[in-house]
Amino acid sequence: MTISEFLERVQNAEPLNAFISVDETDIREQAKEQRKGMLGGMYVAIKDNISVLNQPLSCASHILENFVSPYDATAVKKLKYAGAIIAGKTNMDEFAMGSSSEYSHYGPVKNAINPEYVAGGSSGGSAVAVAAGIVDAALGSDTGGSVRQPASYNGILGMKPTYGRVSRYGLVAFASSLDQIGIMSKTVTDSARILEIIAGEDARDATTVPEPVPPFSQNLESQAGDWKIGLPEEYFTEGLSTSVRQAVDTQVATLKDAGATIVPISLPHTEFAIAIYYIITSAEASSNLARYDGVRYGFRHESDDLLEMYNRTRAGGFGTEVKRRIMLGTYVLSSGYYDAYYDKAQRVRRLLQSDFSNAFQSVDAIITPTTPTTAFKRGEKMDDPLAMYLNDIYTVSVNLAGLPAMSLPVGTDEDGLPIGLQIIAPAFKEETIFKIGTLIERLKS
Amino acid sequence: MKYEVVIGLEVHAQLSTNSKIFCTCANRYGEAPNTLTCPVCLGMPGTLPVLNEQAIHFAIKTGLALECSIRRYSRTARKNYFYPDLPKGYQISQYEDPICYNGKLLIETDGKPREIGITRIHIEEDAGKSIHGMGSGTGVDFNRCGVPLIEIVSEPDMRSPAEARAYLAKLKQILKYLNVSDCNMEEGSLRCDANVSLRPMGATTLGTKTEVKNMNSFRAVEKALEYEVARQTTVLDEGGRIEAVTLFWNDATEEAVLMRSKEEAHDYRYFPEPDLVPISVPEAMVETIRGQLPELPAARAERFLKAYGLNEETVRILIAEVEWARYFEDVVKTGVKAKSAATWVTGEVLRVLKEREAGLDDFPVSASRLGELIRYIEAGKISNQAAKKVFETMLTSDQAVAELIEAAGLSQVSDTDFLETIIREVLAAHPEELARYREGKKQLMGFFVGQVMKKSKGRANPKIVNQLLQSALESD
Fold it and tell me: At what angle are helices A430-444 and A188-198 packed, to 10 degrees?
């Protein structure tokens, strides 16, 4: 794609509100050079909670208004080395907290298939930028489904790698023990190529793992008969819409017909996932967001009194959902409540992790729906946080267990809205996901 | 009523690592504000900490010197509070499972040994520094932000302000021997907070404690604790109750003022730091560090007593500061007698250091030059008195020692012909004393020696003068 084509697409898609900033001068500069490397000339958009040197970094929040990042995130640096063109910063839920990309200081992102509907979130802008064909691929971040769910709502692929696989250096922290940079793309091959580039141990992120990065994109082929796939009974119960269930069932049947072994499995602690997810992520967020205090950068409400400056800056700088989570997180970490909430949640988290390791004793991968329903109408759940939270019911466990997972499109519902299927693999077995994903792509065509 | 004083200290020491604890910025004091910073220590969005291994080594080294157990796996934790000098809104510290625990330190008070328990040693990062009175507002210097600290927490084992001071002094001495911290209280590289409570003599439960902060010298520690003990005594004697408050010592007014009441105490909402993995300390690493521990003050004192035949008081002075002990041994290595080296170091050298209020770092007379000077004395080429004068000139000149002696005209006269002439003159000038000497008043020997020394302007070799005088007085 030429620069003018790209810029035209950006302009045409403006009503979708997928981007927060597109630096035309910078993109022309980047395109001037001969873009060599594995991703040479590929346009990749970056979620606005990932640092790009000398570009705005707002996290869709008023509190980081006018903040320009003084450094490149490790993943962005690697993309640049591989020849990708960094195509702009995408819109999102403020600080990645949300499932619809409506909680943004820059206004809501609209669904690429039907703009009446939500884009999903929190990486809604990245999903829409890819689905609308503005860019070839995009980086998002996934703390509880923020890459997979919007990918599902827009009919593209969303890959969340194993925790520790991709450096978090430069990803603005929401919940440090779950956050992971993810990839949004139209094909499995693109996803595999980008992960190959951005993965690997990083001296700047102590939680990255010294695990070798296989050449994913060179090893995509497999036979359905190679795989034993588990279907967790807890993911196919009430709350799951008929259309989503049918689409997933159909895909599973196709795999079975092709020779895959399908077995029912159980992940018995699934029912606690949402509760412990909101305790742990809110606790970590309340601490991670303390640095936005008006002292060094971003928005400041001037006052002669320090406490008042803090209060007014944070009251005016953060949106409702972010404030809700900070308060929740502050509460669960308070002395006297820590054991009952945070500590207990961490203990249940370990039970949830062992659910998965037990399951992976007998299966190579797990297939579930990505979300209980297809995209909902914009505005519908804005004032019902609990309903909003339930959107993540099939995705949060993966983050709590630190596993890799991908959502890929498997048809549409009666309104033409895309449906996503989720493949979950053991830690550092992204290769399995890419292979089964390729198989599904092949069986579809 | 008679009360027992109970004091525990929390000592923070900045570690003299090359770089900061979570980033690669240099760890240096005294640079222009905000020149030693980076996105990580400034808490820029998206940055992450990476633990400096040297800081872990220094903490373990300290732990071993204080006879602590070293934890195989320890965790970092976030301590959450808002302050402009704390860029992330939390300090990375340790809460549960500190890296070192359960140690002890032997001190001496009134000549009696006392064992003070060490509860724990943990690592953490320092905060920046607020600079008040900058035009319209307050500025923050983040150079100090991320400097590694160890916090050494004692058991409430000290029973007087003097004991607390002795503990702090001993701790400082050990940290200096380990070369893990500069321990400069004025520059803030060694800081001390105290927990103080009183209880009736003989009671076994602890009274309500108060915390005293901002004591920036040994003297301040003792003064502040004396103040607080007196205050609590008065409150209790008047039937009052002690409130669990935090007090701020004002060194100028010599008063402790209320800093935080119990109600204002922070809830730091500690939780395990998710950005760092547990600190793993393999047994082999502990043993390697143990093997590299330097000789500590107690062992050095024993060796000095045995190897050099010095008296206890001299040894105590020599080992007080690690650099004094090192300097002394360097002088001995030049081949002079240990006793003369000790006399010079504890005498002239320390006198000058005290006058200058300086350390040995930039002391102008190197150990080898002092050794050379002492060798001239031992060879009888210069008197002790004259050597002191030469020593003075060495403080400002790096000319060769021999030249300085020559230039000052202080080389000792051992020429017997010359000395016999002086002796004859002295005896001729004091016939009365000579007569009394010969009548048996042998004590007058000293008088004659003095006269000869005086006439030779101090340059006569006293040993030879003695011999010559002896024969001159006995003859005739």
Answer: 160
What is the token pair recorded at B336? 């002079």
Is A173 inside a domain boundary?
Answer: yes
Q: How many domains does chain A have?
A: 1
Q: Is the pLDDT of residue B186 over 90?
A: no
- Asked whether residue B242 falls in the same domain as residue B124, the answer is yes
* pLDDT score, position B476: 57
Number of domains in chain B: 3
Indicate yes or no: CB of B46 within 8 angstroms of CB of A170. yes
pLDDT per position as a tens digit, A311-366 = 999 999 999 999 999 999 999 999 999 999 999 999 999 999 999 999 999 999 99
Q: Is A51 on the interface with B (CB under 8 A)?
A: yes
Q: Hey, what amino acid is at A154?
A: N
Q: ipTM of this predicted complex?
A: 0.96
CA A313 – CA A301 distance, rounded (Å): 5
Per-residue pLDDT, B380: 78
Q: Which of B262, B287, B312 is the last residue of a domain?
A: B287
Residues B46, A306: C-beta atoms closer than 8 Å = no
Residue A137 belongs to some domain of the structure: yes
Q: Are residues B437 and B400 in the same domain?
A: no
What amino acid occupies position A345?
A
What is the distance between the alpha carbons of residues B9 and B471, in angstroms, rounded to a whole number?
68
B159 plus B183 within the same structural domain: yes
Q: Are residues B122 and B244 located together in one domain of the fold?
A: yes
Reading the block at residue B338, the tokens are 């240990």
- Is A169 in Cβ contact with B84 (below 8 Å)? no
Measured distance CA(A179)–CA(B369) in Å, rounded: 63
Instruction: Supply B431's token pair.
Output: 């016939």
Question: Domain of B437: which CATH number?
Answer: 1.10.10.410
pLDDT digits (tens, 9 = 90+) for A96-118: 999 999 999 999 999 999 999 99
B188 and B41 within one domain: yes
- Assess whether pLDDT exceeds 70 at residue A138: yes
Which residue range(s) make up the domain with A379? Answer: 3-273+343-444
Q: Phi/psi at A40 (nearest 5 deg)? A: -45, 120
- Confidence band, pLDDT 50/70/90 cuts, at residue A434: very high
A177 contact residues in B (CB cutoff 8 A): 274
Distance from the first to the final alpha carbon of chain B: 81
Question: CA B270 from chain center: how many Å?
Answer: 34
- Looking up residue A105, the CATH number of its domain turns out to be 3.90.1300.10
Domain, as residue range, for B387:
295-407
A321 touches B at CB < 8 Å? no
State whether B366 and B464 are in the same domain: no
| Residue A342: DSSP 8-state | I
Q: Please, is A258 exposed, middle or buried when counting C-beta atoms within 10 Å of its C-beta (0-12, 13-18, 19+)?
A: middle
pLDDT digits (tens, 9 = 90+) for A354-409: 999 999 999 999 999 999 999 999 999 888 888 888 889 999 999 999 999 999 99
pLDDT on residue B423 = 87
**Which chain A residues are closer than 8 Å to B90 by Cβ?**
287, 290
Question: What residues in A contact B44, CB-CB < 8 Å?
Answer: 69-71, 297
- CA atoms of A43 and A41, how far apart (whole Å): 6
Amino acid identity of A86?
I
- Does B426 share its domain with B464? yes
What are A179-232's pLDDT values in tens digits? Answer: 999 999 999 999 999 999 999 999 999 999 999 999 999 999 999 999 999 999
Of A34 and A49, which is predicted with more confidence?
A: A49
Verify that B299 and B283 share a domain, yes or no.
no
Q: Read out DSSP for B308-353?
A: H---HHHHHHHHHSHHHHHHHHHHHHTT--HHHHHHHIIIIIHHHH
Last residue of a domain, one of B256, B287, B318: B287
Starting from the edge strand earliest in sequence, which strands make up the sheet with B190-200, in order? B69-70, B100-109, B112-125, B148-154, B3-14, B190-200, B210-215, B246-250, B255-260
